[in-house]
Amino acid sequence: MDRDQAQARAEKLCDEISRHNWRYYVLDEPELSDAAYDALVRELQQIEGEYPELVTLDSPTQRVGAAPAAQFASVRHAQRLYSLDNAMDLGELDVWLERVEPEVVRRGCSYVCELKIDGSSIALTYENGALVRAATRGDGKTGEDVTVNIRTIKSVPLRLLVDVPGAGQDSLFHEDSPTRIEVRGEVYMPKESFARLNAEQDEAGQPTFANPRNAAAGSVRQKDPAVTASRDLAAFMYQIAAPRALGVETQHAALEWLRAAGFKVNPDIKVCAHAEEVHAFCEWALQVRNDLPYEIDGVVVKIDSLALQDELGYTAKAPRWAIAFKFPPEEKTTVLREIRVQVGRTGALTPVAEFDPVTVAGSTIARATLHNEDEIRRKGVRIGDTIIVRKAGDVIPEVVGPVERLRDGGEIEWSMPSRCPSCGSEVWREEGEVIPRCTNAGCSAQRLERLGHWASRGALDIDGMGTEIITRLVEQDMLHDVADFYALTFSDLTSLDLGRVKKDGTPQFLGETIAAKLMTSLAASKVRPLARLLFGLGIRHVGSTVAETLASAYRSLDALMAAAEEELAEVEQVGPKIAASVRAFFANPENLDIIERLEVADVRTADPEIEGERREQTLTGLTFVLTGALERHTRDEAGAALKALGAKVSGSVSKKTSYVVVGAEPGSKYDKAVELGIPTLDDEALEAIIETGQPPEEGAE
Ligand code: AMP
Ligand code: ZN
């Protein structure tokens, strides 16, 4: 394939991948299998690797790529992003409706009801169809430039479905359409992803998010776009900043325009002719809010006609043509019966509130974690208190606080026990940590948790190996650590006393059918991906996401064990704290013994190689630009070799370029490098890098 052919092919692939991306992330109607989609992406990556100058900013391969930022630039919004006036109940909503209804009826226009997505607002700017900027709302006048982060959100199109205005290929644009378009919407995190993220944060000893809104806002404002990319975010768009310029005259037409342009638009939108229909929609939304996969905190009612909107105008803070009907928070009261201390598999002692069961946000809850002692003190809850409970983000049960006026003096203040509730060892709270731990490695509660974790779904997934069986196996001395799982035999299992008696008074043993199933599950669990094994080992601070990262960086347990701490800390998303924890884990002889026995039992500890040998990613974070003729390689070969080491290869020199490799008769890129003061490398230096895999020494010229 020559360069022209490659370019044509790359453009086709870009379009096709963008389209499938849209079908998958926006419409949720994939047309291709994952494998076929991946094949297209790989082909594009390969072409872009060979011809780095063909990489475009809106190429689907370029979603993540920017280096971590020290600070976000501030962005002045072309048009102000307003807040919304709130109606706290249907009565307040009626006050607003009564004010606007006569005019709405007189003109025969309507209302549009939309769900109020509880996330973080965002303004996106497209120039000639390509996403050029994403900004947060900030104070409405000035926000922050979070483009590199928003680019990682797959439901945000990098280019509009239809390309350039005026190109005449569709009805979305007309002759005089502006080439620059701003749209607004809400970035959100689905409830399920929020729950998973918090579990991972807990696991990694990181602070959890109070609700999906905070999680979304926090993810959008991450300094490192790779972290944002790892968070499951999506965005619903609901507004065009200057709709009239596109020939759009109503809010519902604006939503249709957005949908046609490739944005994700919430499907639950209702055009209502009268106040009663608006009421009905609000009632309906209240009914379904718990069943939606994302959190909403109300309904936004807007006047449909943009002409009428303009006439009504704005107050200092909010439009007069819209109102947010806010849902009452779903909170219930109940009685706190007990604060029980749970011992985690790393020995962490977590206080858990146990209260009389109540139904909140669609399900019954009876317990909620209180996280730690400081949190209990801050909330000021005592055993026996009447407490207010709710669900954070409609999913995670949470104790809001006590109703102090209902106290009768019999309530008991709680404090963390000084001994482990399971093994009685003294607990230890490390300097600067909020969580005390039982440091007894032989603590049976910890052991049970560790074994249960190994067998759990996200880890080795030993189907059928539940808490009860594990507890019995431990009691009957058949199971001490995770390697013992694989020493279990069929007859071991059938000799397991379940601690119950049958009708005839004889003890009940584990049945043969179950035992046989467990043997199959155990065998199946031996070939899980490396990431699951790493997660299963229960290394502190290694949650499922970090496990994935480590597995893809090292691909085998041996390689990971051989990695030095400094090297581990360099892996993206790892850092010194996790690196130290990983090293400490593999320095422990007991753990090494377990790993050895796992290997003897044929538990898979390496991922099968996908394609050829994989080199260490020593050049991650560096961007190279090649110019001029090289002696020993073509530029494409050299580029591919650098990429194989984790570097980025770019077609043009910018301030972000780390090095410019200069061959014979270099082009204008060389001049640009000199102008910007970018260090240059010669042929020889390049060869050294490719051979040793080591980045050039500081100050190389
Ligand atoms: P508030 O922050 O309570 O003043 O509410 C205004 C915010 O609601 C806006 O800035 C948006 O971020 C958000 N919002 C969520 N869904 C919608 C929607 N469908 N229409 C308008 N605003 C919405
Ligand atoms: Zn203990």
Task: List its salient traits.
701 residues, alpha+beta, Helix Hairpins, D-amino Acid Aminotransferase, Chain A, domain 1, OB fold (Dihydrolipoamide Acetyltransferase, E2P), 6 domains, 5-stranded antiparallel β-sheet, 24 helices, 24 strands, 19% strand, binds adenosine monophosphate, binds zinc ion
Query: What amount of the residues lies in strands?
Result: 15-25%
Proportion of residues in helical segments: 25-40%
User: Under the CATH scheme, which class of the largest domain?
Assistant: Alpha Beta
Strand order of the largest sheet: 2-11-10-3-9
At the fourth CATH level, what is the homologous superfamily of the largest domain? DNA ligase/mRNA capping enzyme
Number of domains: 6
Annotated CATH topology of the largest domain: D-amino Acid Aminotransferase, Chain A, domain 1
Low-confidence stretches: none
The profile of the biggest β sheet is: 5 strands, mixed
Distance between the termini: 35 Å
Kindly report the average pLDDT value. Answer: 90
CA radius of gyration is: 30 Å
* Coarse shape: globular
CATH-level-2 architecture of the largest domain = 2-Layer Sandwich
Q: What structural class should be given to the helix and strand makeup?
A: alpha+beta
**Overall strand count:** 24
